[in-house]
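hiii so um. not sure if this is the right channel but i have a protein structure encoded as tokens and i wanna go backwards to a sequence. like what aa goes where. can anyone help
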């Protein structure tokens, strides 16, 4: 089995689990291909050189892989998605940090989880993405996001105004610090922090959430994900910031942004398919704070 490993920096306390993972993969005859910068981190900063079949540094290097293991947090998975793209390679998230909504395999349960994964004893959750087109082609090939598109002012100056249309019909002008268009996956990320609703992973929807709107009656809006959205921004100074997950670009206010559902999804491995269990575990829903 050809397995790709993608990762970012982590604390030294996770290192024993990392060593166990590579040993487990080797013992089970996996041909491991590792992300080159991650291998450099393990060797140069952690003093560990795993036995691997090779390295990769771009999407082409994942050819033939049957599985990608992402070691880090949810942000690491967002970066891994830029490599997996529309390949259909299933992704398993190994959490080396704290919360980990997507990276749900902890270090303590790593070996039992990997045993299940290699035996294909898992569930696949298809995660929809959004896709962006700009009049300047600003994001190139990486014009998609698993979590969200966020529009924001560049600095601490005046608010921006985001004019929005849905399927060609004018929706509103948002006077605010910015606007977030999130997928169901992204509804538990940036959108949640500005008061947006949590959406079930199977919801075929996007949520539009304003950031600190001037008019307090402007609330988040859930729309079908087959709608096309068009955005035009007025900003003092003539520029604003647009971000797809963690990839940001400074744009001129003449830029027109079109948002729609991407033509592919990401296949995420989940051992616990019950989304409500994830809410109780990760967000402490139903926990009695009095104890």
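sure thing!! here u go:
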């Amino acid at each position: 089995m050809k397995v790709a490993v993608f990762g970012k920096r982590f604390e030294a306390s996770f290192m024993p689990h990392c060593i166990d993972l590579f040993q487990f993969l080797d013992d089970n005859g996996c041909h491991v291909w590792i992300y080159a910068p991650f291998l450099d981190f393990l060797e140069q900063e952690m003093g560990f050189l795993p036995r691997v079949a090779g390295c990769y540094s771009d999407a082409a290097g994942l050819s033939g892989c049957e599985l990608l293991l992402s070691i880090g947090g949810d942000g690491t998975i967002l970066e891994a998605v830029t490599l997996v793209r529309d390949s259909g390679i299933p992704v398993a998230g190994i959490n080396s940090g704290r919360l980990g909504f997507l990276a749900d395999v902890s270090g303590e349960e790593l070996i039992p989880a990997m045993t299940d994964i290699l035996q294909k004893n898992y569930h696949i959750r298809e995660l929809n993405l959004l896709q962006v087109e700009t009049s300047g082609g600003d994001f190139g090939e990486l014009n998609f996001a698993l979590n969200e598109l966020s529009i924001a002012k560049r600095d601490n100056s005046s608010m921006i105004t985001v004019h929005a249309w849905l399927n060609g019909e004018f929706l509103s002008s948002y006077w605010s610090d910015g606007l977030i268009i999130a997928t169901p996956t992204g509804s538990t990320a940036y959108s949640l922090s500005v008061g947006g609703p949590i959406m079930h992973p199977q919801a075929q929807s996007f949520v539009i959430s304003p950031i600190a709107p001037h008019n307090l009656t402007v609330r988040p809006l859930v729309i079908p994900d087959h709608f096309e959205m068009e955005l035009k921004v007025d900003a003092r100074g003539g520029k604003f910031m647009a971000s797809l997950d963690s990839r940001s670009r400074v744009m001129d206010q003449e830029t027109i942004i079109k948002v729609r559902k991407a033509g592919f999804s990401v296949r995420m491995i989940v051992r616990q398919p019950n989304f409500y269990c994830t809410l109780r575990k990760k967000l402490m829903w139903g926990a009695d704070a009095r104890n």
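oh and Residues 15-27 form the longest helix (13 residues).
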